[in-house]
Structures are given as C-alpha cells and as structure tokens.
Amino acid sequence: MSPVIIAIDGPAASGKSSTARAVAAGLGFRHLDSGALYRGVTLAAVRAGLPRPFYAADVVAEAERWGVDLRPRNGDFEVVAMEPVPDASLRAAVVTEHVSEIAALAEVRGWVNEHLRGAALVGEAVVVDGRDIGSVVFPEAQLKVYLTASPAARAGRRLRQRGEAVDPEQLRVETEALAARDRADSSRAVAPLVQAPDAVALDTSDLSFEEQVERIRWLARDRGLAIHD
Ligand code: CDP
C-alpha cells in the first residue's frame, strides 16, 4: 500500500522540523526529517576531509562507505552510520556551513530521495519536512504545507533555540546568514525551494507554535488523514 504523506516545506528556521514532529506525534504518524539526512551526508564528506568544491560522486561514495542511512525509531527516523551520529554532530557549525553546497548536487539529491522514499514505505504514514518534499520527492503527498515566516521572526527563533541573546546586532547577523542560505536553496538549479502549486501556505510570523501545529492537524483531519487524534 502506498504510504500516507504529509509534506511540510519551507525556508531555514521556519519551524518545519519541530512542527512536523509535533504534527506527527498528534496524528500517530512517523516524523521524517530530510534535512537531517542531508546533514548526515555532509558530515560523511566533512569527516573524510573531502576537498572543495565537493564532487557529487565522491560525496555519495563517502556516504555509502560510512553507511549513512535512516533507521526507524520511536515516532521518527534516526540518521545512522558506522559510528554513532549524535544530533549535535549533525547540527555542528561545519556541517551547517557546507550542507547547502552539498544539497545542490543532483546526484546527492537522487541518493537522498531514494532513502527518503524507502523510509516512507517503512513508516506507512509519515510527516516529511524539507525544501522539495511536496514539489519533487513526494508530489503525490495527500497534504502539502508551505511554512513561511518573516526573516526577522525566523532569526529570533533560531537565536532563542540556541540559547543566545536576541540583541539587535545578533539578530542582524543571524537574519543575514538565514537570507544567504535561503538564496542558495532557492536559486540552485536542482530542486530549488519552491512552494508546490497545490501546497497550503502558512505564514507563522504571528502564530504561536501550538497554533501552527493545530492548523496543520486541522488540515490533516479535514482530509481524513489522522490515524488517531
Ligand atoms: O533546520 P534548517 O532549516 O536549518 O535546515 P535543515 O532542514 O536541517 O536542512 C539543512 C540544509 O539541507 C538546507 O539548508 C538545505 O540546503 C538542505 N535541504 C535540502 O536541500 N532539501 C531538503 N529537502 C532538506 C534540506
């Protein structure tokens, strides 16, 4: 049977991952974080010391050699490899710095997409978050949501998430860093960040976390997608 899929796409720090996790938990779905797999592949390339510019074939070979994969875990999937892959390593600054360059490589995207589709079959009912989930990876998704928020709202959230001060200068630096990653993700030739024509757009700048989760759960229920609620 084909899996039931809810796709949540949007720019960096729009709250996709935490929202997707909460929506999945509420509906009895499994959460699948595609960005975490891009980060796993990037970590494989970085720890192998691959030189820049990165070549897709070398990056994929390193991901294979290190055994990067997705494994079902309670309520979600974890990124695994031959050694433990702590979340802190996936979110390390060096990974964040290189992930958009690696995610722009067509062969890497093909490799990641195959793993995501395989995981969705195992998961049966999944909430997948990323940049191209509704547009490229799962165009057949039963519900597609495009989350946005103003750059300043997103930068403020990211700083608070990291426990850092939200003074005007920090906010300016973080807003610029996010805008640079948005530009890289939106302007790349392969699978750029776009809103799928059939996606529901949700601007979360003025919504609380609970409100945005509830809106998506409502959309899912409205389409008869909830397993339990
Ligand atoms: O959480 P954050 O928005 O910072 O990023 P992420 O979801 O962990 O994804 C990290 C990077 O992977 C993004 O900046 C994109 O360059 C890339 N990515 C992508 O190209 N396509 C996806 N479906 C997911 C992530």
In words, what does this structure look like?
There is one protein chain. The protein has 229 residues and is α/β, with parallel strands linked by helices. The chain has a single domain (5-222), classed as P-loop containing nucleotide triphosphate hydrolases (Rossmann fold), CATH 3.40.50.300. Helix content is 52%, strand content 16%. It contains 10 helices and 7 strands. It has helices at 16-27, 34-47, 56-65, 87-90, 93-103, 106-123, 133-137, 151-161, 168-187, 209-222; strands at residues 4-9, 30-33, 69-73, 76-80, 125-130, 143-148, 200-203. The protein has a 5-stranded parallel sheet with strand order 2-5-1-6-7, sandwiched between helices. Strands 3-4 form a two-stranded antiparallel sheet. β3 (69-73) and β4 form a beta hairpin. It is globular and about 50 Å long. The mean pLDDT is 93. The chain binds cytidine-5'-diphosphate.
CATH superfamily: P-loop containing nucleotide triphosphate hydrolases
What is the total domain count? 1
Name the shape in a single word: globular
What compounds sit in this structure? cytidine-5'-diphosphate
Helix content: 40-55%
Poorly predicted residue ranges: none
Strand content: 15-25%
Could you name the CATH topology? Rossmann fold
* Structural category: alpha/beta
Q: What's the total helix number?
A: 10
- The count of β-strands is 7
